[in-house]
């Protein structure tokens, strides 16, 4: 028994201390040696089996350790290579691209075109195209651009987890921007917008910015009684109020009363623009949720798409726009100016036909196809602002 205990102790020391190669060599030569001692044959045979078993375990552990080290080195190398992308020559393009996606450029373009379009409705004669007019339009565009960045940025800050599902390419959802960076950006642009509106001194412009700020905040921010985007009807009303009413009325009055110094009047083109864009704003509010149905369901956003289904909401949007185009054709036909009559009728007929043709060919089972169609609606939105100044 004492001999057996000594052998076990020696065996454990042998396994844990002797290098791997020595163990392998020992396992190859221990059997001939053990055969020379017959009275210990059974003991030494069991030792040989024990050694071979533990040698296999040690070998597997050693190889696994080598693999893990190899993977660790490979990851370190890849991280080092990836870090080269943040070098000075690449950091600027990456930063610009991230800010471009953060700003949601299709909304910025829509805002700029709408301001230019409704500003032209205040023009009555060629002499109105003065330096003061162009400066006034530029001031409105820049101030509205700053507020636009605040609104879309706040929406992304409030929807980081949802955007990881619906829009993972946005900088906050992808991790390119930290929450702190997002807060700094939206805060800075809100302050710059209000500062510019105050410096300009135009009350229509300032109120346009202030009301947009209030509605944009209430729409997105996740605090009690707010985050109105959770409620489909209220969310649609927010977008309608900004896109259809504030943009048309406030920026028109900015040029009409502040820049040109005329009385407050609302001619036919302004009324038409407000009514038509009410339809368009509702469509944008409804359609923007169609591609986002998966994330909205997960996070409990009760959009019309979640409640009614993608196909039904899609065709509701198409119907609303076709009704708007039909009304625009009637308004164009009532114009006393022949050139305005033909341009507005033909323009809206073409846009209505393009919309119908594209809608019939859209695959509603494909998220990419629906997203592409949503961008097409924004293109129709831009085109309408090219026609609105021609409505007389």
TrEMBL record:
Against PANTHER family, the record matches this protein to: HOMOGENTISATE PHYTYLTRANSFERASE 1, CHLOROPLASTIC, HOMOGENTISATE SOLANESYLTRANSFERASE, CHLOROPLASTIC
Its Gene Ontology cellular component terms are: chloroplast membrane
Recorded coiled-coil stretches = none
Q: How does it sit in the membrane?
A: Multi-pass membrane protein
Q: What is its main location?
A: plastid
Q: Which UniProt keywords apply?
A: Chloroplast, Membrane, Plastid, Transferase, Transit peptide, Transmembrane, Transmembrane helix
Family classification: Belongs to the UbiA prenyltransferase family.
GO terms assigned for molecular function: prenyltransferase activity
Q: Where are the transmembrane segments?
A: 108-126, 132-157, 177-198, 204-221, 233-255, 270-287, 313-333, 339-357, 369-388
Q: Entry's InterPro entries?
A: AtHST-like (IPR044502), UbiA_prenyltransferase (IPR000537), UbiA_sf (IPR044878)
Where in the cell? Plastid, Chloroplast membrane
Spell out the protein name for this chain: Homogentisate phytyltransferase
Specify the superkingdom. Answer: Eukaryota
Q: Which Pfam families match?
A: UbiA (PF01040)
User: What organism is this sequence from?
Assistant: Mikania micrantha (bitter vine)
């Amino acid at each position: 028994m004492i001999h057996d205990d000594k052998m076990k102790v020696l065996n454990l020391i042998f396994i844990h201390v002797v290098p791997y190669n020595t163990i392998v060599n020992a396992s190859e030569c221990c059997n001939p040696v053990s055969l020379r001692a017959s009275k210990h044959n059974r003991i030494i045979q069991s030792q040989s089996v024990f050694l071979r078993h533990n040698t296999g375990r040690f070998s597997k552990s050693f190889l696994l350790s080598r693999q893990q080290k190899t993977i660790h080195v490979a990851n370190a190398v890849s991280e080092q290579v990836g870090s080269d992308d943040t070098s000075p020559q690449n950091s600027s393009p990456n930063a610009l691209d991230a800010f471009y996606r953060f700003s949601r450029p299709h909304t910025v373009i829509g805002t700029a075109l709408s301001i230019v379009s409704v500003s032209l409705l205040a023009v009555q004669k060629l002499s109105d195209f003065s330096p003061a007019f162009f400066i006034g339009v530029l001031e409105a565009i820049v101030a509205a651009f700053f507020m636009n960045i605040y609104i879309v940025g706040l929406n992304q800050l409030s929807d980081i987890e949802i955007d990881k599902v619906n829009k993972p390419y946005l900088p906050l959802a992808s991790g390119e921007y930290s929450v702190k960076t997002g807060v700094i950006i939206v805060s800075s642009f809100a302050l710059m917008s209000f500062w510019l509106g105050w410096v300009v001194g135009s009350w229509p412009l300032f109120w346009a910015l202030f009301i947009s700020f209030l509605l944009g905040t209430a729409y997105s921010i996740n605090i009690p009684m707010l985050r109105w985007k959770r409620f489909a009807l209220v969310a649609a009303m927010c977008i309608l109020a900004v896109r259809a009413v504030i943009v048309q009325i406030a920026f028109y009055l900015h040029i009409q009363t502040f820049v040109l110094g005329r009385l407050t009047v609302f001619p036919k083109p302004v009324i038409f623009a407000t009514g038509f864009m009410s339809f368009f704003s509702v469509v944008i509010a409804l359609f923007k949720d169609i591609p986002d149905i998966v994330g909205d369901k997960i996070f409990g956003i009760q959009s019309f798409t979640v409640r009614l289904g993608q196909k039904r909401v899609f065709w509701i949007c198409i119907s609303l726009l076709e009704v708007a185009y039909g009304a625009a054709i009637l308004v164009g036909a009532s114009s006393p100016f022949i050139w305005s009559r033909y341009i507005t009728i033909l323009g809206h007929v073409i846009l209505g036909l393009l919309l119908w043709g594209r809608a019939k060919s859209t695959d509603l089972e494909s998220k990419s196809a629906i997203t592409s169609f949503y961008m097409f609606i924004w293109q129709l939105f831009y085109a309408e602002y090219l026609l609105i100044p021609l409505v007389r």
